[in-house]
Write a structure and sequence with these properties.
Length: 343
């Protein structure tokens, strides 16, 4: 994805979003359109960028890749006046009522910070099929592609066993690949597996066979067996990118997710978390919804007007010279959008 960027060495924003996936970009879209100077800090990559096709996003055809989806979103964001900075945030500190972000290219200060840093999927050792062409990580995104097709699930824990049994809703040909490991699932799960038509394959994978279209056709095993598959799922856990949240003192759940309320607020005032970094379904529409709710919550807390009665008693009435509250650049962009819509 090639996108022009704004990368000042030092800047001040009302809102800094760390992470450029669907959750972070949606948060930034809302805060920018609601009049708050916003920057997205994105190191690139991420789970959404890996998608070769987009599923379950209404109005977006499946032919749209993850990179194209994100590229379009960034272009949209920048048209409203947000900064998009391709930088890795190495540290965040709380200084008085603000946050200071240190990045690979400089620093920035923000009144509110939104963490949208997601997680990394645990990956099995090679040999492996190509990601998106036989190796998948999202059951709810990709199960539809394997209706009536032979499918594998790699893993040794309860989650892998459950995914294998769940796939029986879509196909009658499901193998659970231990790849030479001993299973760690519970006795209850073992009993469930015994009563579901899932084949458990213990031998390790030694080779991959792909078709001319790049899709997986079969896997080769250490005992010489060749098993045909259209695709499957790797279930080796998740590593949550919660280091920044932890360094700021935010509450972290036992599974590594960041604890948030219904609008993405963490236990640290002014710090939010959205998307795959938080508990819940790891789905693009869910991430977008979380981003929207966080953006609205930030606006409600940071907007200038209406002034409270206490503020009016202290500072007096609001004059016409005080309004509107939007920064001049954001107001200019809004005027441009309005004139374009009228054409």
């Amino acid at each position: 994805m090639t996108i022009s960027t704004d990368s000042p060495t030092e800047s001040r924003y009302e809102v800094a979003v760390v992470g450029g996936g669907p959750a972070g970009l949606t948060t930034a879209l809302y805060t920018t359109r609601l009049g708050h100077e916003t920057a997205v800090f994105d190191r690139g990559g991420g789970r959404a960028a890996m998608m070769q096709e987009t599923h379950n996003v209404i109005g977006v055809p499946e032919s749209v890749s993850g990179n194209k989806l994100l590229e379009t979103a960034v272009e949209q964001l920048r048209s409203y006046g947000a900064d998009y900075r391709q930088e890795f945030v190495t540290d965040i500190e709380r200084v008085d009522d603000s946050f200071v972000l240190e990045t690979t290219d400089g620093s920035a200060t923000a009144d509110s910070v939104v963490l949208a840093t997601g997680f990394s999927d645990g990956r099995p050792d090679p040999p492996l099929p190509r990601t998106g062409r036989g190796l998948h990580y999202c059951l709810h995104c990709d199960a539809y592609a394997f209706v009536d097709e032979p499918v594998y699930v790699m893993g040794r824990g309860d989650s892998a066993a459950y995914v294998a049994m769940i796939m029986l809703n879509f196909t009658d040909d499901v193998d659970l690949l231990l790849r030479g490991d001993e299973p760690t699932w519970s006795d209850e799960t073992a009993t469930m597996l015994e009563h579901h038509p899932v084949d458990i394959v213990r031998e390790d994978v030694t080779g991959v066979r792909n078709g001319d279209d790049g899709w997986l056709e079969a896997l080769e095993f250490a005992d010489g067996a060749v098993r045909e598959y259209r695709g499957g799922f790797a279930m080796y856990g998740s590593e949550y990118n919660n280091g920044l949240a932890a360094s700021l003192g935010a509450d972290i759940n036992d599974d590594g997710t960041v604890a948030v309320d219904d609008h993405g607020r963490t236990s640290v005032d002014g710090l939010y978390a959205v998307g795959d970094l938080t508990p819940g379904h790891n789905q693009i529409p869910v991430a977008m919804g979380q981003g929207a709710k966080a953006g609205l919550a930030i606006h409600k807390e940071r907007r200038e007007f209406p002034k409270s009665l206490a503020e009016l008693e202290t500072d007096g009435s609001v004059s016409t010279d005080d309004v509107p509250a939007m920064a001049a650049e954001l107001r200019s962009r809004a005027t441009e959008h309005a004139s374009t819509a009228d054409d």
